[in-house]
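Team,

Forwarding the record for the chain on the shared tracking sheet. I've put the sequence and predicted structure together so nobody has to dig through attachments.
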Amino acid sequence: KFHCRRRADRAGAELNVDCTEEDNDVFVPDCTEDGNYKEIQCKRGECWCVDLRGKEIPGSRVRGTNPRCPTMGGKGPDSLH
């Protein structure tokens, strides 16, 4: 199992410790209910596809829309979530 939720909790704790403008640089991953990484991750209007380990798939980052991720068969939604 890939521990998206653990990484999200750790990032959330960092935000709670020191609330400064720089906190915008802390990325909190989007997780499924079972603790895996959601296929599409977004931050500040940019979205990208990730693999099962939460690593960004090169060339998938887009602005203002959701990327078409390989596991979706190129049929990703076209609006931000």
